[in-house]
TrEMBL record:
CDD domains: GT1_Gtf-like. This is Glycosyl transferase family 28. InterPro entries: EryCIII-like_C, EryCIII-like_N, Glycosyl_450act, Glycosyltransferase_28, UDP_glucos_trans. Keywords: Antibiotic biosynthesis, Glycosyltransferase, Transferase. It comes from the Bacteria. Residues 276-420 form the Erythromycin biosynthesis protein CIII-like C-terminal domain. Belongs to the glycosyltransferase 28 family. NCBIfam families: glycosyl_450act. PANTHER family: STEROL 3-BETA-GLUCOSYLTRANSFERASE, STEROL 3-BETA-GLUCOSYLTRANSFERASE UGT80A2. Signal peptide: none annotated.
Length: 425
């Protein structure tokens, strides 16, 4: 069969899709990855066939504009303080709040990152190439539109927690109880207009997929009533080389400190203080590997003697040698730490599901968490010491790792996808 992958235009989102794409390719299926030009190099470096669609997105520039008073709210992210999907919690919020969430996110995020021209190019390619299955990122809705337009089956491949599924479950339940004339759904209206250009009508699977492929362990999944297809998370960091220093065993316990690539590239800065983080680990009897770039180091007051600073090191190679990790709650970082059974200290950024993910990790006993606004060097030092010294954190991290290892690998998922594609297309 032919399978079209459609990631969001950020390298970490592409990396999430590569293992499953290669599992299908290795099983003899034809695979293409269609995305905006920003990530074409990431796709081809992974050895996959790229299909550029639309103009360059440059999501970092959209989130961090250089000028214009009318976009100051985007620059300082003040709107996220009120309309942050990560703050809705497990209890259904009031309908007015959900209405405001979709009214804000649809034009400000979805339409802004998925322009009509990009959807049109993707639909045109899909109608020419005729995929049997479209696998799309939960942050981009061009994929299901293209699937419907060419008659393909389609499924989401999750990047992080299913906040969209949780919000839609709450929202549609409320909306269905309203009189038809009061059912104002901004996301349906926007996708409905896109579908109407091809003579198609909106259905809810345009938002949540016909089914969802989810690498998040079921014990950490949000409580959404939706058909999920579990798959083992396989870390992919792009082209990687093992540095010489990493080939040697550490002389003492090693701790990874990272604030992630996505946040500094997309959101334009760190929510946590680099100085507080470095001060917290300076007096600990550990070796710290900190993934900090030149800009972050320039802002630091100095580098402690027990800290090795590297701009980038593949976490899949580093974490097996680590006894703990301090991080921002990014999806790739979090999932790679789970895959290697590493206890975590989380200082979550305000980006999508980072907050809820930190809460779930804390509740499962694999992590300690602190909001950036409440962070002090003493508090962080205490948390790091606890996850290193209290056996329960390593024990719980090992339990979640065992759960992940018991989940079907991407290769084992291929025949299931073949069956579901035949059923749904």
């Amino acid at each position: 069969m032919r399978v079209l992958f459609q990631p969001f235009a950020a390298s970490t989102h592409v990396n999430t899709q590569v293992p499953l794409a290669w599992a299908l390719r290795s099983a003899g299926h034809e695979v293409c990855v269609a995305a905006q030009p920003d990530v074409v190099d990431d796709i081809t470096r992974a050895g996959l066939t790229a299909v550029p669609v639309g103009e360059t997105l440059d999501v970092g520039a959209k989130m961090n504009p250089d000028d214009g008073d009318e976009i100051e709210e985007i620059r300082d992210q003040s709107w996220l303080g009120v309309l942050d999907p990560g703050r809705i919690g497990l209890d259904p919020p009031p309908h007015d709040h959900l209405q405001a969430l979709f009214a804000a996110w649809t034009p400000m995020v979805y339409q802004n990152t998925i322009p009509d021209a990009m959807i049109d190019e993707l639909v045109d390619f899909a109608r020419r190439w005729r995929p049997d299955l479209v696998v799309w990122d939960t942050m981009t809705f061009a994929g299901p539109v293209a699937a419907r337009a060419c008659g393909a089956a389609h499924a989401r491949l999750m990047f992080g927690l299913d906040l969209v599924g949780l919000m839609r479950e709450h929202y549609r339940g409320r909306l269905d109880r309203l009189p038809p004339e009061l059912r104002d759904d901004p996301l349906e209206e926007w996708l409905g207009r896109a579908l109407d250009r091809y003579g198609l009508e909106f259905t809810e699977d345009m938002v949540v997929g016909q089914w969802t492929i989810d690498p998040v362990p079921s014990s950490l999944r949000l409580p959404v009533r939706h058909p999920y297809l579990p798959v083992r998370y396989v870390p992919h960091n792009g082209r990687t080389t093992v540095p010489g220093w990493l080939r040697e065993a550490p002389g003492r316990r090693r701790v990874c400190l990272t604030l992630g690539v996505s946040f500094r590239e997309v959101a334009g800065g760190d929510r946590a203080s680099v100085n507080e983080l470095l001060e917290a680990v300076a007096d600990l009897d550990v070796e710290v590997v900190a993934t900090l770039n030149a800009e972050q180091l320039d802002a630091a007051r100095g580098l402690p003697d027990n800290v090795r600073a590297v701009d980038f090191v593949p976490l899949d190679l580093l974490l097996p040698s680590c006894s703990a990790i301090i991080h921002h709650s990014g999806s790739g970082t979090f999932m790679t730490a789970l895959a290697h059974g590493v206890p975590q200290v989380i200082v979550p950024t305000r980006m999508w599901c980072n907050g809820p993910r930190a809460d779930l990790a804390r509740d499962s006993g694999i992590a300690l968490c602190c909001e950036p606004e409440e962070l002090t060097a003493d508090r962080l030092r205490t948390m790091v010491t606890r996850v290193l010294e209290e056996p329960s954190f390593a024990r719980n991290a090992a339990r979640v790792r065992a759960e992940m290892l018991g989940t079907p690998s991407p290769r084992e998922l291929v025949p299931v996808l073949e069956r579901l594609t035949a059923e749904y297309r």
